[in-house]
Model the fold of this input.
Amino acid sequence: GDSVTQTEGPVTVSESESLIINCTYSATSIAYPNLFWYVRYPGEGLQLLLKVITAGQKGSSRGFEATYNKETTSFHLQKASVQESDSAVYYCALGDRDSNYQLIWGSGTKLIIKP
Amino acid sequence: DAGVTQTPRHEVAEKGQTIILKCEPVSGHNDLFWYRQTKIQGLELLSYFRSKSLMEDGGAFKDRFKAEMLNSSFSTLKIQPTEPKDSAVYLCASSRDREDERLFFGHGTKLSVL
Done:
């Protein structure tokens, strides 16, 4: 079936260090997967961080990057130097270009940034 | 733009009660989603509306869960009767249309069923 697996949290990183949150997906019934990272900052609703709809392409936002790798079925989220304001819960999600309403969500990764 | 507004933020219900959760989507958005979030199951889609028409009614959630969209700016999710296993955070989200897939979420309603 279709599924998303991401790094189990919480993940604790010191400020200015690099970050990677792993996301792998299985899209057995989806011909054209779209991949998303959503984020929920403390006190706010979930919001889109970045999305990529074409294999091999990279999405970026707020210093975060993720590359859609079809060979390894991965969409890892990376940032070279984190800030305290990056503390949040990050969700990887898999969508279907032909049926965009049904997203398959990862379980979320809580990121804690140590000052 | 005002974001997605959900009320109430917290709800406590006795087993067997009927509760109604409310959602106002972002103005001008045509798609509206109701999700349930728990630690074990994560985010689960309950209902999906496109231009006020129900497109997805959540399969396994059909028997006690009913979402309605009375107009383009207001939706409700009724749970009747509630059970303790319904304790979760209920999230409402909206998006502009099929071409713009970005989901905008509300803060959610935390439901506790005793």
The interface with chain B takes residues 34, 36, 38, 40, 44-48, 51, 91, 95, 100-103, 105-108 of chain A (CB under 8 Å). The mean pLDDT of chain A is 94. The radius of gyration of chain A is 14 Å.
